[in-house]
């Protein structure tokens, strides 16, 4: 799913994959309002499998409140399962921390 073609930055994309023991949500490019409808659909897809969710964020170049809202919805609706944010750049980690979502989301090291 791709959105945001009218802007000069890399378009945002989100994709959900099921691996054997967890769900992977791949975020890339600009995670903003243009990607919002796709992000809403991905929350339901990611949680339907009832497996741990890993959000790959190493290729995110920008994130606004839409992206933070996505992470908050994912974490709040995941129940006992923790959400892991994998490879997030410093700017995304900072946003998650400032929004006080870091108590709901685990981090793996950035690349």
From TrEMBL:
<protein>
    <submittedName>
        <fullName>Anti-anti-sigma factor</fullName>
    </submittedName>
</protein>
<dbReference type="InterPro" id="IPR002645">
    <property type="entry name" value="STAS_dom"/>
</dbReference>
<dbReference type="Pfam" id="PF13466">
    <property type="entry name" value="STAS_2"/>
</dbReference>
<dbReference type="InterPro" id="IPR036513">
    <property type="entry name" value="STAS_dom_sf"/>
</dbReference>
<dbReference type="InterPro" id="IPR058548">
    <property type="entry name" value="MlaB-like_STAS"/>
</dbReference>
<feature type="domain" description="STAS">
    <location>
        <begin position="12"/>
        <end position="111"/>
    </location>
</feature>
């Amino acid at each position: 799913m791709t959105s945001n073609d009218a802007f000069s930055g890399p378009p945002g994309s989100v994709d959900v994959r099921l691996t054997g023991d967890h769900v992977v949500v791949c975020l890339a490019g600009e995670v903003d309002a243009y990607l919002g409808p796709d992000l809403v659909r991905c929350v339901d897809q990611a949680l339907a499998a009832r497996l741990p969710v890993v959000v790959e964020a190493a290729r995110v170049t920008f994130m606004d409140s839409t992206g933070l809202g996505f992470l908050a919805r994912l974490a709040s609706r995941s129940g006992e399962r923790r959400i892991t944010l994998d490879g997030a750049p410093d700017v995304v980690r900072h946003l998650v921390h400032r929004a006080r979502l870091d108590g709901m989301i685990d981090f793996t090291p950035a690349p």
